[in-house]
DNA sequence: GTGATGACGCAGT
DNA sequence: GACTGCGCCATCA
């Protein structure tokens, strides 16, 4: 699963472009990469924890701004803590003022 | 090979 | 606004 030039690398590269304090969604990433399915983004991020350089997977949420992937981190709370450390507000596993924090690739 | 699953998203009800 | 069903497609049993 660690082959170069796989769509995993494309996902990682795009997610690494998300600025500090901003977030993006699975759908936006899938659309930008023409994957055809937002599920593929989740599958890629599920195994991104050994990637180099590291992937800020905590900046990727679902279309409602919910931290649907938090359960896949080392602890269920680390994703929220990372986002809050970047100045975002998270309540009930959702990002407040989500649209203002949303980042889209050019 | 076949069917089920999933860090999702959208249309229909 | 919520709930449901379906499409999506790589991966696993």
Q: Describe it for me?
A:
There is one protein chain. This protein has a single domain, classed as Arc Repressor Mutant, subunit A. Strands 1-2 form a two-stranded parallel sheet. It has a two-stranded antiparallel ribbon with strand order 3-4. The radius of gyration is 13 Å and the shape is globular. The chain has helices at 7-15, 26-33, 38-46, 78-85, 98-101, and strands at residues 24-25, 60-61, 90-91, 94-95. Strand 3 (90-91) and strand 4 form a beta hairpin. With 106 residues, it is mostly helical. Helix content is 36%, strand content 8%. The structure holds a DNA duplex (13 and 13 nucleotides).
Helix content: 25-40%
Strand content: 5-15%
Low-confidence spans = none
Count of structural domains:
1
What is the fold's blueprint, element by element?
Blueprint: H1 7-15, E1 24-25, H2 26-33, H3 38-46, E2 60-61, H4 78-85, E3 90-91, E4 94-95, H5 98-101
Parallel strand pairs: 1-2
Antiparallel strand pairs: 3-4
Helix pairs in contact: 2-3
This protein binds a DNA duplex (13 and 13 nucleotides) through residues 1, 7, 25-27, 30, 35-46, 57, 60-63, 67-73.
Characteristic key phrases:
5 helices; 106 residues; two-stranded antiparallel ribbon; Arc Repressor Mutant, subunit A; DNA-binding
């Amino acid at each position: 699963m660690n082959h170069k030039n796989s769509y995993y690398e494309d996902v990682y590269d795009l997610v690494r472009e998300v600025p500090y304090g901003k977030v993006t969604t699975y759908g936006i990433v899938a659309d930008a990469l023409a994957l055809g399915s937002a599920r593929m983004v989740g599958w890629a991020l599920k195994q991104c924890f050994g990637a180099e350089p590291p992937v800020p997977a905590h900046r990727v949420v679902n279309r409602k701004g919910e931290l649907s992937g938090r359960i896949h981190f080392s602890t269920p709370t680390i994703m929220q803590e990372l986002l809050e450390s970047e100045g975002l507000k998270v309540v009930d596993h959702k990002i407040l003022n989500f649209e203002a924090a949303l980042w889209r690739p050019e």
